[in-house]
Design brief:
- The protein is mostly helical.
- About 60% of the residues lie in helices and about 0% in strands.
- It has 10 helices and no strands.
- Helix 4 packs antiparallel against helix 5, helix 8 packs across helix 9 and helix 8 packs across helix 10.
């Protein structure tokens, strides 16, 4: 995608949604971290249903440790892979208390050292909780990057690198949310809504369906 087209691509997404927000519910950086860990291979809607009651009881690593792994499982049993996720949440909570005074660190290396936290999760936390211009590549953003020609890549990391290079600095703060929401609600995997897409004329996807 040409530089001018990339600028226009983001300009249009920004015009439609000037202040995009995460669709995961949270009350502070810690609950955001927990929500993102729980969201792996799960929907935000499903996670929010579980964490609504949970976050009324637990909003810190210390409270999570007091709740315990079995107590946590009772709240999140509707979420896929909840046994492994409960173990990771308790493990990361323990490390936050032991290494970081109960606070979520604002550094990538420290975040990725926590159980259950990979690059994508760290990028989400850095962006949403701390305002860093990171771009977390999930399945939606991977698809949008490749399908539109904005940042083609064979792996999520390649797409992330492509987006970092292609995205103008003034759009990076919210690029993650614009792209994920676009992939979630417009540029869907099986049936993209090309006729309703605000950037269809900039997109390289050869199989557009423009009928309303």
């Amino acid at each position: 995608m040409r530089k001018a087209d990339v600028e226009e691509f983001y300009r249009r997404l920004a015009a439609a949604n000037p202040e995009p927000r995460s669709e995961l519910d949270f009350v502070n950086p810690y609950t955001l971290l927990v929500a993102v860990v729980l969201s792996a291979q799960a929907t935000d809607v499903g996670v929010n249903k579980a964490t609504g009651p949970l976050f009324k009881v637990v909003d810190s690593p210390a409270k999570m440790l007091a709740l315990g792994e079995d107590g946590l499982k009772a709240f999140i049993k509707t979420i896929g892979l909840y046994n492994a996720k409960a173990k990771n949440v308790i493990g990361l909570s323990r490390l936050l208390v032991e290494r970081h005074g109960g606070q979520v660190p604002a550094e990538r290396a420290a975040l990725e050292a926590l159980p259950g936290v990979g690059r994508k999760t760290a990028n989400v936390v850095l962006n949403v909780a701390f305002g860093e211009p990171t771009i977390a590549v999930d399945t939606h953003i991977f698809r949008v990057g490749n399908r539109t020609g904005l940042a083609p890549g064979a792996t999520p990391f390649e797409v992330e690198q492509g987006l970092e290079k292609a995205t103008p600095a003034r759009w990076k703060r919210h690029a993650h949310h614009w792209l994920i929401l676009h992939g979630r609600y417009v540029c869907m995997a099986r049936k993209p809504a090309c006729a309703a897409c605000p950037v269809a004329d900039l997109c390289a996807y050869p199989a557009k369906t423009m009928a309303a």
